[in-house]
Amino acid sequence: MYNLEDYNYDLPEKLIAQVPTTSRDSSRLLLVERAKKSFSDHHFFDLPWLLEPGDLLVVNNTKVVPSRLFGHKESGGQIEILVLEHPNSDAFRSNTRWCLLRSSKRPKKGGHLFFENNISGTVKDIGDDGLVKIDFHGVSSIDSLLQEKGHMPLPPYIKRQKGDYRAVTDRERYQTVFALKPGAVAAPTAGLHFTEGLIGHLHQAGYALVHVTLHVGHGTFRLVKTADIREHKIGEESYIIDPDAAKAINTAKKDGRRVIAVGTTVVRALETVAGRNGKVTPGRGKTDLVITPGYSFKVVDAMVTNFHLPKSSLLFLVSAFGGLELMKSAYRWAIEKKYRFYSYGDAMLII
């Protein structure tokens, strides 16, 4: 269960969702019941009828920064960058940031880059796996530029060309309705299925909902290169658990009510701050927690999650929670039933 190849599967390309569903909560929802080892097909708007009285849902209120910029090198070669550093402090005003760069040939240290809106940059340093540190020129604040002119950092399996008309829709739909605190370079996709109407139905049905923050970093989606998945490193991501959220979660656990994590990011945040007795401690910090089979969950009792890429750390996590063989069966079920996969795809509720 620690062999990377155990987490591979074949997915027809046509099942990779390129656009979101017309309505967020009209996406499909596969209910996975671990105790019964059973599956059943629903829609996300059925969620209030699939939960139990007293359930507490925990969502991630991180906000995706439109951090993608297009440009070219001095040679004229096209480039695309993803600005990775998004400090949440007004005191941080540096326009020198680590970025993920995609180009046919990586520029050299000291090389000049040219972007839209008369912005340029100088390569100050070069890291591994496509990382470059860029000093931006021609703008007073790179953060303001990104908010106004940046493109949403969609994953590469969602095909978009420069100037694609769907980019306007992406600005809204690749963001959850909970999005409040800027800092993520990718969406916490399990939360994309919620609407204000559905949240109202959940409250009316007596379900509580609290927010935590985990700013999704590019390391979450880093290619796994280790044959033993326990050796994989994903890098650090910032989290914030406020006292009210911690109190609500701890009260639910004390009362024997289920804590339902909406997304793998919430799972990692809660499990990071939980003590051995499962008590959640409020605060902020960074986590590099990689969850693989054999992990003993201390807080999370059920999970909402999308369908994840083969050989990914996200698939390791859901397999740790649901069981590797059951997850393999669930994915086979979803493929046979033509569920839509990945960020804009459908969801699972694992109980």
Write the layout of secondary structure elements.
Layout: E1 28-33, E2 38-43, H1 47-50, E3 56-60, E4 62-64, E5 68-73, E6 78-83, E7 96-103, E8 112-115, E9 120-126, E10 131-137, H2 142-149, H3 167-173, E11 181-184, H4 196-204, E12 208-214, E13 237-241, H5 243-254, E14 259-262, H6 264-273, E15 283-287, E16 302-306, H7 313-322, H8 324-336, E17 347-350
Parallel strand pairs: 1-17, 3-12, 3-14, 4-11, 14-16
Antiparallel strand pairs: 1-2, 5-6, 5-8, 6-7, 7-10, 8-9, 9-10, 12-13, 13-15, 16-17
State the gist of this model.
This protein is α/β, with parallel strands linked by helices.
Model description:
- This protein is 21% helix and 26% strand.
- The chain has 351 residues and is of the alpha/beta class.
- It has two domains: 4-64 and 173-350, QueA-like, CATH 3.40.1780; 68-150, Beta Barrel (Thrombin, subunit H).
- A hairpin with a 4-residue loop joins strand 5 and strand 6.
- It starts with 27 loop residues before the first strand and ends with a strand.
Annotation keywords:
QueA-like, Thrombin, subunit H, 6-stranded antiparallel β-barrel, 9-stranded mixed sheet, alpha/beta, 351 residues, single chain, 2 domains
Instruction: Please work out how many helical segments DSSP would assign.
Output: 8
Helix and strand composition category: alpha/beta
Q: Can you tell me the residue ranges where pLDDT is under 50 for at least 5 consecutive residues?
A: none
General shape: globular
Distance between the termini: 21 Å
**Whole-number total of structural domains:** 2
CATH topology of the largest domain: QueA-like
Which CATH class of the largest domain? Alpha Beta
Secondary structure: number of strands: 17
User: Which strand-content bin applies to the residues?
Assistant: 25-35%
Helix content: 10-25%
- Characterize the main sheet: 9 strands, mixed
CATH architecture annotation of the largest domain: 3-Layer(aba) Sandwich
Mean pLDDT: 93
CATH superfamily of the largest domain: QueA-like
Widest sheet, order of strands: 2-1-17-16-14-3-12-13-15
Radius of gyration: 20 Å
> Which series of helices and strands comes N to C?
EEHEEEEEEEEHHEHEEHEHEEHHE
